[in-house]
């Protein structure tokens, strides 16, 4: 929860009714008008629901939050994530947005400094005697229709930031730069998590395809045996029809899984910034499912606010909007500037830069939008409205972050629980299959009983695999929800 009380300076409603003393005092002290920014206070839980249960999970692998993908102890997964962080084009776009924001910050810094320019010219003119000026000058003694002029000047200008407009602009640009940097981290986190999720999905589909092929082989053998029995009139035709239906169902599962594998591999290639098919050969050599590591360094919900880059993005955008209010308010007040010129001007090429041709000037400039307060009021209200919108967005982002963490905790625990139950079922069916095989070896049962036991075991194995895959993918969502995988103390954040 976010408290909406924020320290604001009172916004002047009409400069016409302000005393000149206020302006003079601000000129002397160099005060900055507008609200001072204070990060919103977030009321959080003491710990997440399910946090204790997640941390007490028994597992041999452990993962540090900054490099959580290494906790899966899968070198190929680690390699793919490192490639994605280097080559992914979404990350490349985010990096270019940082460059743009950095350029904006440099421009804002430059406005606080004096500016200078050098200009010069050399001109040769020919005067017409038919113009009014030519008719006036032509009768004069020594008149020449040709004239020359030469000039070179150094000009300096400096806007005095007495009321903080430029400083607020710099603060807004700095917040935008920090938001862009945190946004890149958010993209990196999303890319790493999505790469891991696709990889785990590929591994799971490969294992399920192996089970499906075994199921198909079992069904084919069962149908073959039942067909022999049917030909001798030992079973009802409906039994053979039912077995053939199950074989067709097993057959149909294979191409669907194969298509899903190709689709997932192509998705992984795109995540790695490569053409589809680039890394497929590396994925077909081995088929295994990474183990779910323990989740360490969860911290408190308050730590989440400082670690998740998307929340930092939302907070920095809010800070930028606050600074833009100060920029708008500063338009109520006069703006002063200093200007100066040092140079030389002459009509003879040899006389440039001598004492007789030197020139200099100094200027104190004043600009005051004295009769434009309606438009200024609108700009201030617009800036305040944007800040209020971003404050609500920040509050919503925090609520959704907490929701995402607790949902991922629940999903991980429940999927592991489901996998545990299905593992017990698999063990029981494995024992039943062994018993059927032993009875067949002793001549008590037929091969049909063995094949039927195989079919039940393979179905349970597939269900167990699906639960295991779901648990591993849920663990990836846990690390993503916790904001793991980037350094929250990097230079861009400060």
Description:
There is one protein chain. The chain has 494 residues and is an alpha+beta fold. It has a single domain (44-124, 146-481), classed as Outer membrane efflux proteins (OEP) (Up-down Bundle). It contains twelve helices and six strands. The chain has helices at 20-29, 51-55, 75-87, 89-111, 132-137, 165-231, 237-271, 280-284, 301-307, 309-329, 373-441, 447-481; strands at residues 62-63, 115-126, 146-160, 294-295, 335-346, 358-367. Strands 2-3-5-6 form a four-stranded antiparallel beta sheet, with no helix packed on it. Strands 1-4 form a two-stranded parallel sheet. Helix 4 (89-111) runs antiparallel to helix 6 (165-231). The longest helix has 69 residues, at 373-441. The chain is elongated. The chain starts with 19 loop residues before the first helix and ends in a 13-residue tail after the last helix. Mean pLDDT is 85; it is low at 1-20 and 489-494.
């Amino acid at each position: 929860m976010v408290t909406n009380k924020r320290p604001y300076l009172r916004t002047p409603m009409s400069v016409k009714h302000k005393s000149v003393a206020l302006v003079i005092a601000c000129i002397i002290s160099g005060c900055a008008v507008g609200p001072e920014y204070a990060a919103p206070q977030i009321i959080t839980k003491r710990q997440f629901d399910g946090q204790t249960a997640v941390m007490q999970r028994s597992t041999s692998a452990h993962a540090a939050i900054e490099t959580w993908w290494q906790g899966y102890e899968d070198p190929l997964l680690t390699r793919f994530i490192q490639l994605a962080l280097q080559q992914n084009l979404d990350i490349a776009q985010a990096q270019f947005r940082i460059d743009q924001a950095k350029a904006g910050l440099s421009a804002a810094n430059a406005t606080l400094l004096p500016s200078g320019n050098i200009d010069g010219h050399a001109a040769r003119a020919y005067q017409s005697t038919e113009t009014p000026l030519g008719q006036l000058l032509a009768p004069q003694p020594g008149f020449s229709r040709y004239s020359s002029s030469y000039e070179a000047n150094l000009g300096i200008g400096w806007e005095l930031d007495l009321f903080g407009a430029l400083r607020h602009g710099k603060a807004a640009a700095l917040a935008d730069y920090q938001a862009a940097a945190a946004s890149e981290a958010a993209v990196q986190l999303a890319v790493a998590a999505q790469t891991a999720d696709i990889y785990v999905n590929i591994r799971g589909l490969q294992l399920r395809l192996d089970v499906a092929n075994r199921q198909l082989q079992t069904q084919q053998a069962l149908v073959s045996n039942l067909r022999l029995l049917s030909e001798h009139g030992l079973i009802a035709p409906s039994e053979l029809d039912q077995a053939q239906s199950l074989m067709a169902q097993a057959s149909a599962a294979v191409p669907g899984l194969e298509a899903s594998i190709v689709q997932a591999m192509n998705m992984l290639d795109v995540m790695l910034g490569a053409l589809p098919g680039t890394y497929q050969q590396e994925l077909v050599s081995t088929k295994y499912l990474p183990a779910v590591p323990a989740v360490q360094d969860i911290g408190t919900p308050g730590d989440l606010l400082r670690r998740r880059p998307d929340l930092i993005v939302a907070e920095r955008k809010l800070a930028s909007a606050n600074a833009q209010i100060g920029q708008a308010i500063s338009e109520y007040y006069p703006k002063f500037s200093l200007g100066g010129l040092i140079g030389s001007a002459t009509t003879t090429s040899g006389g440039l830069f001598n004492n007789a041709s030197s020139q200099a000037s100094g200027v104190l400039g004043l600009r005051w939008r004295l009769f434009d307060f309606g438009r200024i009021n609108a700009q201030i209200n617009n800036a305040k409205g944007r800040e209020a919108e971003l404050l609500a967005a920040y509050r919503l982002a925090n609520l959704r972050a907490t929701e995402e963490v607790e949902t991922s905790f629940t999903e991980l625990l429940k999927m592991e629980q489901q996998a545990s139950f299905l593992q017990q079922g698999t063990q029981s069916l494995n024992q039943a299959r062994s018993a059927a095989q032993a009875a067949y070896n002793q001549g008590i049962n037929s091969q049909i009983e063995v094949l039927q036991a195989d079919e039940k075991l393979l179905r349970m194995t597939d269900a167990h695999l699906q639960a295991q895959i779901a648990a591993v993918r849920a663990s990836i969502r846990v690390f993503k929800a916790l904001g793991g995988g980037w350094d929250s103390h990097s230079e861009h954040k400060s």
